[in-house]
Amino acid sequence: MSFPGGDGEDAAVAGDPVVLEITDTSSSPRPPPVSVSDLSLLHPLPSPTVTVRADRRRLIESSSYFRALLGGSFSESGREHVQVGCNLEAAVQVLRYLFQPSESFTITHHNFLPLLEGALFLVVESLLVDCERWFRTMASQTCAALVPLDFIIEAWYFAQEHGVTFVQDICPEYLAQNFAHVISRRSFNKIPYDLLCSTVECPHLTVDSEKQLCEAILDWVSENMKPCEQPNPNSVDGHLFLLSKVKICLLPLEFATGTKRHWFDFGNNSVCTILNLLKDSFKTLMGAIADGNLEGYCIRITEYSKNIVLSGCPQITTAFLYISVLPTDLDVSLKRRIVSSYTQVDHRSFILYDELEKAAKTLSFRNVHMVDLSKCPNVHFGAATDWLKLAFPELRIFRALHCLAFCFDDLLYLLLRCPWIDEIDMTIDTSTIIPKQSIVSSSSEVLGKMKQNPRRYYTLCPPYDRQLNSVSSNISRLILEGRNDIDDVDLLRISVLKYSLCYINIRNCTLLTDNGISNLLLKCTKIHSMVVSYTSFGNQSIQTLCTTDLPNHNDGHAHVMAFNIQELHLGGCRGIDAAALSQLMSIINITKFLCLRETSLTDDGLCKFFGSRLEYLDVSETVVSMVSLAPVIRRNCNLNCLKTAGCHSLLFEHNEVEHISGNKYGDFLQEIGSTGFLEDVEMGWGFCPIQIENLISSFSKIRRMTVGLGTTLAENVLCALPMICPFLESLTLRFQVISDRVVRNLLESARNLQVLCLHYCLGNLTSFSFQEKAPALRILRLQWVTPWITNDDLTILTKSCNLVELSLSGCKLLDSNSQEIISSGWPNLALLHLEDCGQVTVEGVSSILNCKALEDILLRHTGRGIGRSIVDDAIRELPLLRRLALDLCDACEEGYDSPSNVMEGRMMRSLRMSRCKTMRGSCLELPREGSSKPVHRDTIVLEWNSTRLTTTIVKERV
């Protein structure tokens, strides 16, 4: 068979034919020649030899190699049969390129390297140009999913071996601009050292955060430091070089502290750098400007960036934001002015904004769609909003979780300045005080020490409503969870979003009334998803949802707002009576997420729900039974979350509701098994006894499981959980009978287990339980189940798992040395709860304060040794601290001093101080010597929001 010529005719007709014998070994037998049209059918190639008849003239015109071989003075030039020794696949691909119609031949990552090798060997200039054009085009695409990482690595090795400079130049650029995607690939750790170095040095390096880059480098270094037969000569210096490229000043504090566990020197240096920045970032930045080294403090933002995540970086100030979007050639004096203006506490100089805006001094990054400034207490959000407007004209999502400084006025200003944003999340911790608690007294005061930060938008406040109404806002998702500084008036102002708002989360916004929520719903009729748990949402709001006279709706049930509800969370809304809830249940038939925890829901109400699209259902702590629940499960085959903990009536019959036929328990499990999609389950009363065979099909996809009072899982079932639930990530057991065998098997076999909580469980656990390695475990809560734990057991535990949350209760054998074991073993702890744990704090809390990433601390009955200044010390030493709970029984100096200055650059949300016996005089005094056994009588709760400090005395321990 022969190759067609340029005019489409057979080569034998179009020109002088030549037979090419392409082989890797000259002694191989010669197969009959084939035509080029049949080359694509040869799979696999008849290695090591292929014989092809081709047009001599086309070969000479297209290839310098054939020009010299067939048209020169070599003896082969006149022969009709010529031998060519080269890579067989490469030669075949080149011939296909030369002789097949161009429209039927494309370059892909599958044939690129053979084509390139063939083009180099046969010197086909046009193919070399096409290969380079294709490779550059491929590299210009910002979606790494289009090209396998293995291909990039192979191309790099090939380019190094053959000296292909354009590939050597493009590979690092491609990896750099797609780095955030590349690091998730399994073959990331196979990237050669020199390629990785070139990538991290590339100015186009694109990551969501500095943490993402550092984590990737540490993973790569850990994998490539493993013992091997031939040690890498670059191992030591190379690893240090890679880590030196990380801007440690931009790492989240929790992550930096965590690196101390395996990379102590690097982690310790990172933590010290971050803490030093917290003390005086102004001096540091001004020094960097003087030294011409400001780049080391600039956030990585490139033209390819999509997300900017600075969450957990308390060292970040507004100055860091602005210097990161300035041109590198900007005048030094202007840089000094910017750093000076946006670092000072009072933020008085905003004249710079006009200068930057008018002179277009800042860079614009249109690909950035998400910015996360959560847990960044030193950012001034008025100035940050101006930064967002200047630099990110296509921003869609803005997150500022746990930032008390991000107040309602900042939200309004953000709506004015950046109306194109689609989602805003300003969640803070929910209030410690819940309505059912008995409050002895409560008082609040405006935070007088908070400076009235003069922002640009203050001048806009009087005509604010008119200005907001003139803005076409795109906000569809607004999350205000925990914001007890927002009232009905503020909620009414939010109704300016009536044309766009679809999702609102006001969970635990305790100042809002049912009337205020109802008024919002009357105006924002496009809302289809609501999280209103633990608010005053009540009958009036339900009547608004179920009303029939809303405007702009003309078809069928569409005029009823509740008919369009897709997500509804009413947990803890005790202002709803059973009749109103039943009315609502009869309408919300397209709902996918439904939470009715701790409401007045009854069987009669649940039976009125006929929806079939549920994916999430929570009826915990209600009086429903399986009579009404089983039909709901049967209709909703896509249900993946089912929570029924605390449903004491789950197995009871109710005469007013016709129950399902047969055995209710058996039918119920059968209904669960028929779904096949459950990933999250909370079960209590009504699930006992349970056989393994009944769970295997039902729970095979479970990731999160909570088993509480009312259900007893047998030991064989608990031991089989890793087999029953191979994807299990979180397990909480309350009031279960457990053993060493159960715990060890969980840690050994549940390889994805990240959360293990054991509360009030019975059984004969010993120190043998936790000696098994559990590298994935991050959260461990042992409440009154391990009284035998000693310091030696803690030491073993630190070597077995890398925790970020630890909660221990009833571990009376622990002493003051336990602190050092905990702080050195888990330096990145974010939560530490110790209750009735021996004498842990008898000598103070100095080692606990060495866990610089702590956000939540509870110390109760842990030893009388805590000093008066504990509150100020904790706030000063722990930049991320949000919650602190103490017991006056542990005070060594007759009580604790009240905090002096919390709000400025801090994240403190709540302080709880429990008292075992009320005393005359100061509320912070200790009970006198000789008093009876401590009995908790009340708790002093201090809570901060963006504007006020509230002090409450609750008649119980909270």
From TrEMBL:
Coiled coil: none annotated. Pathway: Protein modification; protein ubiquitination. Transmembrane segments: none annotated. It comes from the Eukaryota. CDD domains: BTB_POZ_ZBTB_KLHL-like. InterPro entries: BACK (IPR011705), Leu-rich_rpt_Cys-con_subtyp (IPR006553), LRR_dom_sf (IPR032675), SKP1/BTB/POZ_sf (IPR011333). It holds the Pfam family BACK. Residues 152-261 form the BACK domain. May act as a substrate-specific adapter of an E3 ubiquitin-protein ligase complex (CUL3-RBX1-BTB) which mediates the ubiquitination and subsequent proteasomal degradation of target proteins. This is BACK domain-containing protein. It comes from Urochloa decumbens.
